[in-house]
Write a structure and sequence with these properties.
By secondary structure, the chain is of the alpha/beta class. It has ten helices and 16 strands. The protein has helices at 11-27, 43-48, 68-82, 93-106, 179-191, 217-227, 235-239, 270-273, 293-296, 305-321, and strands at residues 4-5, 8-9, 32-37, 54-59, 86-90, 110-114, 116-120, 124-131, 136-141, 148-152, 169-172, 203-207, 230-233, 260-264, 281-286, 299-302. The structure holds flavin-adenine dinucleotide.
């Protein structure tokens, strides 16, 4: 899995390629690089000449900015088609997040921040990772379904020499999302039914202090009614008695992972994100363009939530009737 930016591949990803090549030499397998981008990118050429056998290219305008839900669903589809033995990622912020998401979505074993990697006939892949603050090393074997998901500590797997000047073949795995297909997905999700327990619902519409008072929650309930969604809330909303505790999403509330999470007037504090960041698609409405919730949102609407919610409800109604 390749990370890049500004037309360059991150060195930690080239190290992951090097580690993958060493592993493939032992297993007799091939090395494929997963490259996601919004459009053709100069960094592609570096990957093509990095010593991998194939580059799996996923190009789509919606991949312009990293969002865990968008990247995860794209990569999971690709992994399911390819059936690799292992997926190696650099243990960067994005790499760590993707690694845990991939392991959870694929039901695979996960080893993070590894500093050693080997393949033993009969045992399979083994990794070494520091534990107890680096005072001890643990050796990990994988059980359960492939692929093993492994994040590698940067600056450990540096290649001694440049890879051989070979050119990898390119396989186009670009997703074919369009506004229409997303709409159809929404219809499917809504048709799938709205369990009203927030932990089971496929759609959750949540309100935060930006809703400004319990009297405005009818706007959230109306949208939730149209979508067959459950209503969620941030902790201060619950603490203020606007909603019941069973609605609270976050570290000290419920953990939800719906297909669609709509955050209304929620800032995106880390304790709230802890309960909803695995949602497949996150929509955020906030009047503050700098609100942290926009960092993880797939779609963001900047404006007054009390004005936007009625419009959004009408638009969803129309879209679902078409
Ligand atoms: C130990 C601990 C555990 C916690 N557990 C949880 C938890 O489980 N769940 C949880 O949610 N929090 C939890 N918190 C609290 C968390 O830190 C935040 O304080 C909380 O999530 C903020 O809630 P909020 O986003 O509703 O409010 P705020 O942070 O006040 O954000 C309100 C947002 O609304 C926006 N806004 C205001 N008016 C409008 C408008 N008219 N239109 C659009 N946007 C508007 C503002 O720009 C702002 O971004 C916990 C905290 C601690 C210390």
């Amino acid at each position: 899995m390749i990370e890049h930016g500004g037309g360059r591949v991150k060195p930690a990803s080239l190290e992951a390629v090097h580690a993958a090549r060493s592993l493939a030499a032992k297993t007799g397998g091939q090395v494929q690089a997963l490259f996601l981008a919004q459009a053709n990118d100069p960094a592609q050429q570096t990957v093509v000449r990095s010593g991998v056998d194939q580059v799996l290219l996923m190009i789509h305008p919606e991949l312009e900015n990293y969002t865990s839900s968008r990247y995860l669903s794209t990569v999971v589809e690709c992994i399911k088609k390819g059936g690799p033995l292992a997926v190696l990622l650099a243990a960067t912020n994005h790499g760590k997040e993707l690694a845990s998401g991939l392991a959870s979505m694929l039901g695979s074993g996960l080893a993070t921040d590894c500093i050693g990697l080997d393949y033993i006939e009969g045992t399979g892949i083994t990794v070494q990772r520091p534990v107890y603050g680096g005072k001890a090393l643990s050796s990990v074997e994988f059980s359960g379904p492939d692929p093993a998901i492994i994040s590698l500590r940067p600056n450990v797997f540096r290649p001694d020499s440049a890879p051989k000047e070979t050119e990898a073949s390119i396989i186009d795995h670009s997703p074919e999302w369009s506004g229409q297909s997303r709409l159809l997905n929404l219809k499917e999700i809504v048709k799938g039914g709205g369990a009203l327990d927030i932990t089971e619902a496929r759609i959750v519409v949540s309100g935060g202090l930006g809703m400004q008072g319990p009297e405005n929650f009818h706007l959230i309930e109306t949208l939730a009614g149209v979508l067959g969604a459950a209503v969620g809330a941030s902790r201060p909303v619950v603490d203020s008695g606007w909603r019941e505790y069973s609605n609270q999403v976050g570290q000290t509330g419920r953990t939800v992972a719906p297909d669609l999470y709509i955050a209304c007037g929620i800032s995106g504090a880390v304790q709230h994100l802890a309960g909803m960041s695995s949602s497949k698609c996150i929509v955020a409405i906030n009047k503050d363009p700098e609100a942290p919730i926009f960092d993880i949102a797939d779609y963001g609407i900047v404006g007054d939530v009390l004005k936007i919610l009625p419009i959004l409800t009408q638009e969803f109604k129309k879209a679902l009737q078409e």
